[in-house]
Amino acid sequence: MFKKTSTTSGYRDPEVLVGLDLGTSKVTVVVAERDGPTGEAQIIGMGQAPSNGIRKGLIVHLDQAVRSLKQAIMDAENMVGLELSDATVSFSGGDVKSVRTKGMISLGRNPRTVMQFDIERVIEAAQANVAVPNNQIILHTIPVEYYLDGNTGIDDPLGMTGIRLDIDLESVIVPTATVQNVYNCVEKAGLTVNGFVIKPLASALGALTPEESLAGVVSVDIGGGTCGVAVFADGRPKHLAVVSVGGDHITNDVASVLKIPINKAEEIKREVDLFSEKSDLQADKLEFEHMGRNYSYSMDELTDIVQCRVEELFSALVSTEVSAAGISMLPAGLVITGGGAKSISIDQYLSRVMNMPVRVSLPLDSNRMPPGRNGPEYTCAAGIIRYALEQERDPFRYIEQSLEQLKNSGGSMTSNIKGPRGNGHDDDRSRDPLFGGKGILQYLKDLLKELF
Q1: Fewer CB within 10 Å, N- or C-terminus of the chain?
Q2: Are both 350 and 431 inside the same structural domain?
Q3: Residue 333, domain CATH
Q4: Predicted structure pTM score
């Protein structure tokens, strides 16, 4: 997660955090630094390059994607004056599933304090109920809610007392090949992978205020080839999904209907005011010349093309994912980000379509990001840094698969739970750092000696 620079004459250079966002339209590298392990992170640079070899969030040409990554890395290194060595990587892809399961363990006949080992046990109990196909893996394991002796709304049971611990667990399942291709691409580009984060989660962390995530909100990142959907309530993600429709589909619609080239369709798409009334547009014409030919189209027709695709995306696809979250009340409404959020009046139009409050979000850290690289399309990149910091503060909040299994597996895997220091463990608990290198039985014996 961190790259520590060298020290000279007793002076310790700031720690550097690097995030890499693999998108359909662009590749972004974000660099942040902080003084000491507990200091606040300050974004100091953003590098980017057009995405080649990536389509609908998936790598379709490895060598082209590697070249794009190298270009973005070089851009970031030139901006910050540092050589980057590792990164936390954000990616998407169409086949992402979010599965909810429950787990329960007994703490004993008499009430006792909940220990970290108990949290591991209840997470593993819930994971045992997740059916993972042979060609897929669990990328994230996210505790949604704990219950202690039937009491709901427990955010962190560590140190509390009871006799029974339950959990609602969200597991994010992705194709194994997708993760391995991303891993190979990043490594070939010259960076070591510290960890992965699915794009909808990173975007939500980069866009949502604490008040919104507590109240209940839907975060939608409108990218080029996909849309990331994250439903938050009580401060935690309740559902994550990737929808295989994005801004490029709107561009293709415009190009197909108007019979114009893709690059020109992308240009004129940005001129559409989604909230304009048709009666006001009937007399308006869009006229332009391209490659020696004159074009003239009704703005009413053009607006209708864009509105139809946006309405389909949100009324059908996004609404389906929100329903899957099982959240009936979303007081904070809808927060949209990503490149597609820059469409004119999209917040007003979606507020009418979805019948809820809508706001367009810049990154929460936009005032501390480089000018020109702090718009909605950079929210996911900024969210990677927030993800890395949150995971460090609370290792049980977003539990990752161990990197060794991610890069070596050819089939299904069950998640390794990362302990407080971020290290995975296997079935041989004798090496688990959670117990200071001791086996579980010896750990418990020593604990009982201390108590009695």
Answers
A1: C
A2: no
A3: 3.30.420.40
A4: 0.85
